[in-house]
Amino acid sequence: MNDNAVSDAVLGAQFLRHDEALSARSDMAHEPAVYRTLLESTRAIPWKIDWHTMQFEYIGPQIETLLGFAPSSWKTVQDWAERMHPDDRAQVVDFCVSQSKAGVDHEADYRALTKSGDYVWLRDVVHVVRDEHGAVQALVGFMFDISERKRTEEQVARLQRELEELSFKDGLTGTGNRRMFDIVLKREWETALADGAALSLVMIDIDFFKSYNDYYGHVQGDECLKRVGGILGEGLRRGDFLARFGGEEFVLVLPNTPADAAMRVAERCRNLIAEARIAHERSPYRQVVTASFGVGTIVPSHDIDPTGFVNLVDAQLYNAKDNGRDCIAAIDRPALRSR
Protein backbone atom coordinates (compact mmCIF):
# COMPACT_ATOMS: atom_id res chain seq x y z
CA MET A 1 0.00 0.00 0.00
CA ASN A 2 1.46 3.45 -0.99
CA ASP A 3 1.83 6.50 1.22
CA ASN A 4 -1.06 8.37 -0.36
CA ALA A 5 -3.44 5.51 0.38
CA VAL A 6 -2.29 5.41 3.97
CA SER A 7 -2.77 9.13 4.48
CA ASP A 8 -6.16 9.14 2.78
CA ALA A 9 -7.39 6.10 4.66
CA VAL A 10 -6.20 6.84 8.13
CA LEU A 11 -5.85 10.58 8.57
CA GLY A 12 -8.44 11.57 5.98
CA ALA A 13 -11.70 13.31 6.38
CA GLN A 14 -13.11 10.41 8.38
CA PHE A 15 -11.02 11.42 11.42
CA LEU A 16 -10.97 15.19 10.90
CA ARG A 17 -14.45 16.31 11.89
CA HIS A 18 -14.13 20.07 12.14
CA ASP A 19 -13.24 22.68 9.51
CA GLU A 20 -9.89 23.61 10.95
CA ALA A 21 -8.72 20.00 10.92
CA LEU A 22 -9.96 19.56 7.36
CA SER A 23 -8.01 22.63 6.31
CA ALA A 24 -4.87 21.28 7.96
CA ARG A 25 -5.25 18.05 6.02
CA SER A 26 -5.60 19.95 2.77
CA ASP A 27 -2.44 21.93 3.44
CA MET A 28 -0.48 18.73 4.05
CA ALA A 29 -1.96 16.61 1.29
CA HIS A 30 1.20 16.97 -0.79
CA GLU A 31 3.34 15.57 2.02
CA PRO A 32 2.14 11.95 2.57
CA ALA A 33 5.40 11.03 4.32
CA VAL A 34 4.46 13.42 7.11
CA TYR A 35 1.29 11.43 7.74
CA ARG A 36 3.21 8.18 8.01
CA THR A 37 5.66 9.78 10.42
CA LEU A 38 2.85 11.09 12.58
CA LEU A 39 0.97 7.79 12.55
CA GLU A 40 3.92 5.57 13.25
CA SER A 41 5.36 7.74 16.03
CA THR A 42 2.28 7.43 18.22
CA ARG A 43 1.41 4.61 20.59
CA ALA A 44 -1.97 4.23 18.92
CA ILE A 45 -1.95 1.63 16.15
CA PRO A 46 -3.66 2.73 12.90
CA TRP A 47 -5.25 0.23 10.54
CA LYS A 48 -7.55 -0.04 7.54
CA ILE A 49 -9.72 -2.92 6.32
CA ASP A 50 -11.32 -3.15 2.90
CA TRP A 51 -14.98 -3.95 3.55
CA HIS A 52 -15.52 -5.97 0.37
CA THR A 53 -12.49 -8.25 0.72
CA MET A 54 -12.28 -8.13 4.53
CA GLN A 55 -8.52 -7.80 4.17
CA PHE A 56 -6.16 -5.48 6.01
CA GLU A 57 -4.87 -2.80 3.66
CA TYR A 58 -2.70 -1.36 6.38
CA ILE A 59 -1.75 -1.82 10.02
CA GLY A 60 0.86 0.23 11.84
CA PRO A 61 4.24 -1.26 12.74
CA GLN A 62 3.52 -0.55 16.41
CA ILE A 63 1.45 -3.74 16.41
CA GLU A 64 4.60 -5.83 16.43
CA THR A 65 6.00 -3.97 19.42
CA LEU A 66 2.79 -4.48 21.36
CA LEU A 67 1.69 -7.99 20.39
CA GLY A 68 4.75 -9.49 18.73
CA PHE A 69 3.02 -10.28 15.42
CA ALA A 70 4.52 -8.61 12.36
CA PRO A 71 2.27 -6.29 10.33
CA SER A 72 2.60 -8.65 7.38
CA SER A 73 0.83 -11.37 9.39
CA TRP A 74 -2.35 -9.29 9.65
CA LYS A 75 -3.93 -10.26 6.34
CA THR A 76 -7.68 -10.62 6.97
CA VAL A 77 -10.25 -9.98 9.68
CA GLN A 78 -9.89 -13.66 10.51
CA ASP A 79 -6.39 -12.93 11.82
CA TRP A 80 -7.87 -10.19 14.00
CA ALA A 81 -10.62 -12.49 15.35
CA GLU A 82 -8.33 -15.45 15.96
CA ARG A 83 -5.96 -13.28 17.99
CA MET A 84 -8.72 -12.38 20.42
CA HIS A 85 -9.42 -14.06 23.73
CA PRO A 86 -11.98 -16.86 23.21
CA ASP A 87 -14.23 -15.41 25.92
CA ASP A 88 -14.38 -12.06 24.11
CA ARG A 89 -14.41 -13.19 20.49
CA ALA A 90 -18.04 -13.94 19.68
CA GLN A 91 -19.49 -10.90 21.41
CA VAL A 92 -16.93 -8.43 20.04
CA VAL A 93 -16.97 -9.78 16.48
CA ASP A 94 -20.78 -9.83 16.33
CA PHE A 95 -20.97 -6.30 17.73
CA CYS A 96 -18.38 -4.87 15.36
CA VAL A 97 -19.89 -6.56 12.30
CA SER A 98 -23.42 -5.39 13.12
CA GLN A 99 -22.30 -1.82 13.80
CA SER A 100 -20.18 -1.75 10.64
CA LYS A 101 -23.03 -3.05 8.49
CA ALA A 102 -25.23 -0.31 9.91
CA GLY A 103 -22.55 2.27 9.08
CA VAL A 104 -22.16 3.26 12.72
CA ASP A 105 -18.82 4.30 14.21
CA HIS A 106 -18.09 2.30 17.33
CA GLU A 107 -15.60 1.16 19.97
CA ALA A 108 -14.84 -2.27 21.37
CA ASP A 109 -12.67 -3.49 24.25
CA TYR A 110 -11.18 -6.98 24.20
CA ARG A 111 -8.15 -9.03 25.14
CA ALA A 112 -5.70 -9.58 22.30
CA LEU A 113 -3.28 -12.49 22.16
CA THR A 114 0.45 -11.77 22.18
CA LYS A 115 3.01 -13.93 20.44
CA SER A 116 4.27 -15.06 23.85
CA GLY A 117 0.82 -16.41 24.73
CA ASP A 118 -0.25 -13.64 27.09
CA TYR A 119 -3.14 -11.23 26.56
CA VAL A 120 -3.23 -7.45 26.33
CA TRP A 121 -6.36 -5.34 26.68
CA LEU A 122 -7.06 -3.33 23.52
CA ARG A 123 -9.64 -0.74 22.61
CA ASP A 124 -10.53 -0.55 18.92
CA VAL A 125 -11.96 2.79 17.81
CA VAL A 126 -13.61 2.23 14.45
CA HIS A 127 -14.81 4.65 11.77
CA VAL A 128 -16.97 3.36 8.93
CA VAL A 129 -16.04 4.86 5.54
CA ARG A 130 -18.91 5.04 3.07
CA ASP A 131 -19.00 5.97 -0.61
CA GLU A 132 -21.08 8.73 -2.13
CA HIS A 133 -24.10 6.41 -2.19
CA GLY A 134 -23.81 5.55 1.48
CA ALA A 135 -22.53 2.01 0.96
CA VAL A 136 -19.84 0.77 3.36
CA GLN A 137 -16.48 0.95 1.65
CA ALA A 138 -13.87 0.46 4.35
CA LEU A 139 -13.19 0.44 8.06
CA VAL A 140 -10.42 2.55 9.50
CA GLY A 141 -9.43 2.92 13.08
CA PHE A 142 -6.93 2.88 15.88
CA MET A 143 -6.03 0.23 18.43
CA PHE A 144 -5.10 1.48 21.88
CA ASP A 145 -3.36 -0.47 24.65
CA ILE A 146 -5.69 -0.05 27.66
CA SER A 147 -4.16 -2.77 29.84
CA GLU A 148 -3.13 -0.36 32.59
CA ARG A 149 -6.57 1.22 32.62
CA LYS A 150 -8.20 -2.21 32.87
CA ARG A 151 -5.91 -3.18 35.73
CA THR A 152 -6.90 0.01 37.54
CA GLU A 153 -10.60 -0.64 36.86
CA GLU A 154 -10.29 -4.19 38.17
CA GLN A 155 -8.52 -2.97 41.32
CA VAL A 156 -11.24 -0.38 41.91
CA ALA A 157 -13.96 -2.97 41.31
CA ARG A 158 -12.26 -5.37 43.72
CA LEU A 159 -11.99 -2.68 46.38
CA GLN A 160 -15.63 -1.78 45.87
CA ARG A 161 -16.63 -5.42 46.31
CA GLU A 162 -14.53 -5.63 49.48
CA LEU A 163 -16.06 -2.43 50.85
CA GLU A 164 -19.55 -3.65 50.02
CA GLU A 165 -18.81 -6.96 51.70
CA LEU A 166 -17.51 -5.15 54.77
CA SER A 167 -20.62 -2.98 54.88
CA PHE A 168 -22.73 -6.14 55.21
CA LYS A 169 -20.44 -7.97 57.64
CA ASP A 170 -20.21 -7.72 61.40
CA GLY A 171 -16.75 -6.38 62.12
CA LEU A 172 -16.23 -8.49 65.23
CA THR A 173 -17.64 -11.94 64.45
CA GLY A 174 -17.39 -11.99 60.65
CA THR A 175 -21.05 -13.01 60.38
CA GLY A 176 -23.62 -10.92 58.56
CA ASN A 177 -24.57 -7.68 60.28
CA ARG A 178 -28.01 -6.26 61.09
CA ARG A 179 -28.16 -4.45 57.78
CA MET A 180 -27.52 -7.67 55.87
CA PHE A 181 -30.05 -9.52 58.01
CA ASP A 182 -32.75 -7.00 57.07
CA ILE A 183 -31.94 -7.43 53.38
CA VAL A 184 -31.85 -11.23 53.52
CA LEU A 185 -35.06 -11.49 55.54
CA LYS A 186 -36.92 -9.20 53.14
CA ARG A 187 -35.65 -11.18 50.14
CA GLU A 188 -36.51 -14.58 51.62
CA TRP A 189 -39.86 -13.33 52.88
CA GLU A 190 -40.86 -12.17 49.39
CA THR A 191 -39.67 -15.46 47.88
CA ALA A 192 -41.60 -17.54 50.40
CA LEU A 193 -44.67 -15.34 49.94
CA ALA A 194 -44.57 -15.88 46.18
CA ASP A 195 -43.92 -19.64 46.47
CA GLY A 196 -46.19 -20.36 49.43
CA ALA A 197 -43.17 -21.87 51.19
CA ALA A 198 -42.25 -22.08 54.85
CA LEU A 199 -39.71 -19.65 56.29
CA SER A 200 -38.09 -20.19 59.68
CA LEU A 201 -36.20 -17.89 61.99
CA VAL A 202 -33.99 -18.79 64.94
CA MET A 203 -32.90 -16.16 67.44
CA ILE A 204 -30.05 -16.95 69.82
CA ASP A 205 -28.86 -15.18 72.96
CA ILE A 206 -25.74 -16.15 74.93
CA ASP A 207 -26.77 -16.88 78.51
CA PHE A 208 -25.44 -14.72 81.34
CA PHE A 209 -23.19 -12.79 78.95
CA LYS A 210 -23.07 -9.67 81.13
CA SER A 211 -21.66 -11.82 83.93
CA TYR A 212 -19.13 -13.23 81.44
CA ASN A 213 -17.94 -9.72 80.49
CA ASP A 214 -17.83 -8.62 84.11
CA TYR A 215 -15.70 -11.60 85.12
CA TYR A 216 -13.42 -12.06 82.10
CA GLY A 217 -13.35 -8.53 80.67
CA HIS A 218 -14.57 -7.16 77.37
CA VAL A 219 -11.59 -8.36 75.33
CA GLN A 220 -12.28 -11.94 76.35
CA GLY A 221 -15.97 -11.23 75.85
CA ASP A 222 -15.30 -10.30 72.24
CA GLU A 223 -13.37 -13.53 71.78
CA CYS A 224 -16.34 -15.42 73.16
CA LEU A 225 -18.68 -13.74 70.68
CA LYS A 226 -16.36 -14.64 67.82
CA ARG A 227 -16.13 -18.22 69.03
CA VAL A 228 -19.91 -18.60 69.31
CA GLY A 229 -20.39 -17.01 65.87
CA GLY A 230 -18.02 -19.58 64.39
CA ILE A 231 -19.77 -22.45 66.17
CA LEU A 232 -23.18 -21.33 64.92
CA GLY A 233 -21.78 -21.17 61.41
CA GLU A 234 -20.84 -24.84 61.68
CA GLY A 235 -24.47 -25.70 62.36
CA LEU A 236 -25.82 -24.14 59.18
CA ARG A 237 -27.05 -25.93 56.12
CA ARG A 238 -26.53 -24.80 52.56
CA GLY A 239 -28.63 -21.70 51.94
CA ASP A 240 -29.02 -20.75 55.62
CA PHE A 241 -27.96 -17.29 56.76
CA LEU A 242 -26.34 -16.21 60.04
CA ALA A 243 -26.06 -12.67 61.36
CA ARG A 244 -25.22 -10.93 64.60
CA PHE A 245 -28.49 -9.31 65.61
CA GLY A 246 -26.93 -7.09 68.24
CA GLY A 247 -24.88 -7.38 71.42
CA GLU A 248 -24.74 -11.08 72.33
CA GLU A 249 -27.67 -12.00 70.06
CA PHE A 250 -27.45 -13.89 66.78
CA VAL A 251 -30.14 -14.81 64.26
CA LEU A 252 -30.53 -17.54 61.66
CA VAL A 253 -32.70 -17.20 58.55
CA LEU A 254 -33.72 -20.64 57.28
CA PRO A 255 -35.38 -20.46 53.84
CA ASN A 256 -37.84 -23.14 52.75
CA THR A 257 -37.63 -24.77 56.18
CA PRO A 258 -40.61 -26.27 58.03
CA ALA A 259 -40.93 -26.16 61.81
CA ASP A 260 -39.47 -29.58 62.54
CA ALA A 261 -36.37 -28.91 60.46
CA ALA A 262 -35.91 -25.52 62.11
CA MET A 263 -36.03 -27.16 65.53
CA ARG A 264 -33.36 -29.64 64.45
CA VAL A 265 -31.09 -26.80 63.31
CA ALA A 266 -31.59 -24.99 66.62
CA GLU A 267 -30.92 -28.15 68.63
CA ARG A 268 -27.77 -28.87 66.62
CA CYS A 269 -26.47 -25.36 67.26
CA ARG A 270 -27.31 -25.58 70.97
CA ASN A 271 -25.45 -28.88 71.24
CA LEU A 272 -22.42 -27.52 69.36
CA ILE A 273 -22.14 -24.62 71.81
CA ALA A 274 -22.43 -26.98 74.77
CA GLU A 275 -19.84 -29.36 73.32
CA ALA A 276 -17.36 -26.50 72.86
CA ARG A 277 -17.27 -26.14 76.67
CA ILE A 278 -16.24 -22.49 76.65
CA ALA A 279 -15.40 -21.70 80.26
CA HIS A 280 -17.87 -19.44 82.08
CA GLU A 281 -17.21 -19.43 85.83
CA ARG A 282 -20.26 -17.27 86.58
CA SER A 283 -22.72 -19.54 84.75
CA PRO A 284 -24.88 -21.91 86.84
CA TYR A 285 -24.89 -24.41 83.96
CA ARG A 286 -21.75 -26.49 84.40
CA GLN A 287 -19.68 -23.27 84.36
CA VAL A 288 -19.64 -23.26 80.56
CA VAL A 289 -21.15 -20.93 77.94
CA THR A 290 -24.70 -21.85 76.90
CA ALA A 291 -27.34 -20.14 74.81
CA SER A 292 -31.11 -19.74 74.65
CA PHE A 293 -33.04 -20.12 71.39
CA GLY A 294 -36.31 -18.78 70.04
CA VAL A 295 -37.69 -20.50 66.94
CA GLY A 296 -40.52 -19.55 64.63
CA THR A 297 -41.85 -20.89 61.33
CA ILE A 298 -44.34 -19.20 59.06
CA VAL A 299 -45.77 -19.37 55.58
CA PRO A 300 -45.73 -15.62 54.83
CA SER A 301 -49.00 -13.90 54.05
CA HIS A 302 -50.20 -10.34 53.77
CA ASP A 303 -51.62 -10.55 57.30
CA ILE A 304 -48.18 -10.12 58.89
CA ASP A 305 -44.96 -8.42 57.86
CA PRO A 306 -41.35 -9.52 58.48
CA THR A 307 -40.97 -7.17 61.45
CA GLY A 308 -44.01 -8.69 63.13
CA PHE A 309 -42.60 -12.17 62.58
CA VAL A 310 -39.25 -11.17 64.09
CA ASN A 311 -41.05 -9.82 67.15
CA LEU A 312 -42.92 -13.11 67.58
CA VAL A 313 -39.70 -15.12 67.42
CA ASP A 314 -37.96 -12.68 69.75
CA ALA A 315 -40.77 -13.26 72.25
CA GLN A 316 -40.01 -16.98 72.08
CA LEU A 317 -36.37 -16.25 72.83
CA TYR A 318 -37.44 -14.46 76.01
CA ASN A 319 -39.70 -17.37 76.86
CA ALA A 320 -36.65 -19.64 76.64
CA LYS A 321 -34.73 -17.34 78.97
CA ASP A 322 -37.68 -17.17 81.38
CA ASN A 323 -37.87 -20.96 81.36
CA GLY A 324 -34.36 -21.23 82.73
CA ARG A 325 -32.10 -20.59 79.73
CA ASP A 326 -30.01 -23.16 77.83
CA CYS A 327 -33.17 -24.27 76.03
CA ILE A 328 -35.28 -23.80 72.91
CA ALA A 329 -38.74 -22.25 72.75
CA ALA A 330 -40.83 -22.23 69.58
CA ILE A 331 -44.07 -20.63 68.46
CA ASP A 332 -46.94 -23.01 69.25
CA ARG A 333 -44.45 -25.48 70.71
CA PRO A 334 -43.41 -26.07 74.33
CA ALA A 335 -39.95 -25.08 75.42
CA LEU A 336 -37.43 -27.89 75.03
CA ARG A 337 -35.23 -27.88 78.09
CA SER A 338 -31.68 -29.18 77.87
CA ARG A 339 -30.87 -32.35 79.74
Automatic annotation (TrEMBL):
Transmembrane segments: none annotated. GO terms for molecular function: diguanylate cyclase activity. GO terms for cellular component: plasma membrane. Residues 197-333 form the GGDEF domain. GO terms for biological process: cell adhesion involved in single-species biofilm formation; negative regulation of bacterial-type flagellum-dependent cell motility. PROSITE patterns: GGDEF, PAC. Its EC number is 2.7.7.65. InterPro entries: Diguanylate_Cyclase, GGDEF_dom, Nucleotide_cyclase, PAC, PAS, PAS-assoc_C, PAS-like_dom_sf, PAS_fold_3. It comes from the Bacteria. It catalyses: 2 GTP = 3',3'-c-di-GMP + 2 diphosphate. PANTHER family: DIGUANYLATE CYCLASE DGCM-RELATED (PTHR45138:SF9), REGULATORY COMPONENTS OF SENSORY TRANSDUCTION SYSTEM (PTHR45138). This is diguanylate cyclase.
